[in-house]
């Protein structure tokens, strides 16, 4: 074989070697027993037709490649946002391996999470013993200051009661009676990762504010002038949280960040392994009850939490992933009103610089058609920004989007001349989007790493702006929120536009009449 220790060939070139090509050909001819290539091509071409699209959109009982993940993934995100907190998922090891790897591949950082290691016997008899042993091992081996418990499908199907199991574990001596173990039921077969984020964050707030599952007196709110901030499930949290804190600091605000994993997924390499880094402290969570208001950046990541905060007497300012001028304006003006201070001059300058950059580049993006998919809040933010640029968000899809979300996107369409003819698709998946890309073509696609298969199939260039991003590095270290974040987003749009333009004008003597040095 061509691979050897003296000359290691990367997989990109290795499988082009004659020996591997022969293996592939023999496998196809002797074992796969495929339909003839002509028939395969005929069916493939039919699936790109309008006729097939109508059949595709008529399906009801099948989902093909949904643009979402399951609830426990969002719960693990939340746990990583609290100081010295370890995520404990009551379920199988395989599920937890997926959550750890998903975050680690996106953020390029280790993600700590443990499992109660439920197997077949627990599925039959219940997972109480797994909980008792698992909490003891977690407490003694990893020395957390808090353990945040969530569930997978297995635990939910058999009906395990987390509250009762945790209390029994304390009675059995697995962990001290006073040790904090907030919990949330996060059944993976309903909702999505943003639902799990909501349930887990609500579980932590209720634990501290409502009396620690009946084991302590509930806290009484004593209103102060501080402001809470909740970012929601955010794949760009490392860059975004830094930018949001900077804006709060420019106002001189007294603020509490609820769930901050930005340091957990951005630890330095200096010879010391940090299982726990940064995060919201217990003291901050307790103090946050007294805040005069909470600013929430992702409505659909925090629906239950928003309701709970309002019930506690706080004003809640709800935004939808502020990207661009209008989105950031809404955040900045809300902050100015709540704090009672004018907008800092630096932010006004940054706003003007963003508008200038948009004007510099508007001619290139004006009229370009985009298809995009992702979480509901991010789709709202990106839709608003594309319309500001004079672009057309032709297809906006959210598998975990609701009809109410779709109506909200439609309002953005209706408010802009560039929204005419644009459509929104709640509860649809990437196989639906494939039909749209073939029958109602666009210039660019915005999505996550999995969109590269759509890019290869349809030829539509992909802009990676949605979690998870596995095949590019360090995007998460830069903000997309705020005026500076919008500038970063603008550059990402422009880079893909110019790369595509260059690729289309690169053949010497044939198409290079427009392979310009200056764009």
TrEMBL record:
Q: Which UniProt keywords are present, listed alphabetically?
A: ATP-binding, Iron, Iron-sulfur, Metal-binding, Nitrogen fixation, Nucleotide-binding, Oxidoreductase
Every copy of the Nitrogenase molybdenum-iron protein beta chain N-terminal domain together lies at 1-56
Gene3D superfamilies membership: Nitrogenase molybdenum iron protein domain, Nitrogenase Molybdenum-iron Protein, subunit B, domain 4
Q: What is its EC number?
A: 1.18.6.1
Among Pfam families, the record links this protein to: DUF3364, Oxidored_nitro
Reported cofactor(s): [8Fe-7S] cluster
Q: Which reaction does it catalyse?
A: N2 + 8 reduced [2Fe-2S]-[ferredoxin] + 16 ATP + 16 H2O = H2 + 8 oxidized [2Fe-2S]-[ferredoxin] + 2 NH4(+) + 16 ADP + 16 phosphate + 6 H(+)
Establish whether keyword Cell wall biogenesis/degradation is in the entry. Answer: no
* Start and end residues of each Nitrogenase/oxidoreductase component domain: 70-491
- What is known about its subunit structure? Tetramer of two alpha and two beta chains. Forms complex with the iron protein (nitrogenase component 2).
For this protein, the record's NCBIfam families field holds: nifK
Sorted alphabetically, which PANTHER family does this protein's record hold? Answer: LIGHT-INDEPENDENT PROTOCHLOROPHYLLIDE REDUCTASE SUBUNIT B
Task performed by this protein: This molybdenum-iron protein is part of the nitrogenase complex that catalyzes the key enzymatic reactions in nitrogen fixation.
Its recorded name reads Nitrogenase molybdenum-iron protein beta chain
- The source organism is Ideonella azotifigens
The taxonomic lineage of its organism, from the top, reads: Bacteria, Pseudomonadati, Pseudomonadota, Betaproteobacteria, Burkholderiales
